[in-house]
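ok so dumb question maybe but i'm new to this and my supervisor (M.) told me to 'just get the structure for aldehyde dehydrogenase (NAD(+))' and walked off. so i did the thing. is this what she meant?? sequence i used:
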Amino acid sequence: MVRSFDTVFVGGRWVPPAGDGLIEVVSPVTEDLLATVPEAAPADVDAAVAAARAAFDDGPWPRMSPAERAGYLRRIGQEVTKRVPEMVESFTAEIGAPRAVSEAFHANATAMWDDAATLHERVAFEERRTWANPDGSAGEALIVREPVGVVGTVIPWNGPVATASLKIAPALAAGCPVVLKPAPEGPVSTLLLAEAIEAAGLPEGVVSVLPGGRETGEHLVRHPGVDKVSFTGSTAAGRRVMSLCGERIARVTLELGGKSAGIVCDDIPLDRVLGSLLPAGFGHSGQVCAAITRILVSRARHDELVEAAAGILASLKVGDPAEPDTVIGPLAAERQRDRVEGYIAAGLAEGATLVTGGGRPDGIGTGWYVEPTLFAHADNTMRIAREEIFGPVLTVIPYDDVEHAIAIANDSDYGLSGAVYTDDPALGEYVARRVRTGQMFVNDASMCVTQPFGGFKQSGLGREGGVEGIAPYLETKMIQGVPA
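this is what came out, is it supposed to look like this??
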């Protein structure tokens, strides 16, 4: 059962919404109505920002010691853990993520809160520096890292609790109040996160959660009371967010799209490759920004890899994500299925070979499903190789040699993730260093949620996770003349 809500979370309190807009949460499996939640109006955003502004300007949160704030973060993590079973059930029902995916995402969320609770032990909020002046005297200053201010965060639907945690936890650790705007698709699990935050007993005004659409998000991003914006979503939407922040020089972090490549070298058996490389592309039905959806293999091994990969993809169970053995659930929305089917048609039109999949699964009458799909003999100029599809579509591209593979991997507007598979450690490091992307894996393809995550090029600006993840929420101040 997915819970409905009739209030919004403003400054740590559940209050009636300012407007009468309603978000209907529809099952991507049955296409039936699951729940309803209020759609936050601009007036709700104004109230949340005012509460956050008061919390920052006059409240205790930014004036606590980092260790004191860490105690609250640990309590939030404990409260999230209590709610993981309901979050998993809600996310699986709302978005169609298979249970194994949903469980992994929410385990990651608890790890993020636990990690953020230790940031005060690893980040120097204050330090003294000395240096030699030209006249031989010594200079000395106190370097202080202070919270940047009120933070507005906008997140997508594909992993809302994990994505929210990756943003909110370090922002709170830095001393920043946060206003979170989750997507209208699948908002219930994020409101469960709000309940966990409420139970942790933070001071008034520190966190707000306001589900809403584009208008709500844009009002938050443009709000003069917001000092810093952290956005996760498509590159197209990220351009808009960046332009709005540029109008008033607001600080901004962007985690955007990807078209990541996995390079398979000739010296490694495929049975040590495909078990991690393929799930990195089709996991969560490919609805992951860091999905590795371009598979680069030498021309000599192209057909061997395609045959093996096709066999694996054809064997995957597509169906009800609540069933424990389902691997491929539905796409999150009907428009998303239409988008993916459009890319499959484009791949065929441009001359790629459709090896398996490409349609809707037999025997499933409702829901927004697309079969796991494999294209072969593709060229890196094709749309299926250049644009983010956000669906279970993998594209195999042949290369001539390793330098050619690196060139193909780098021939992209994106640079978020990637992998290389080889039995030669030196070659693995060489390739990993050469590919222009925010994270590279050698003989694996996964995600580490406690280390820096973010992208090069149009995959975004800044990093989230680990000690690097708190930096965007801090401003550095130099103070001279203060005795030690």
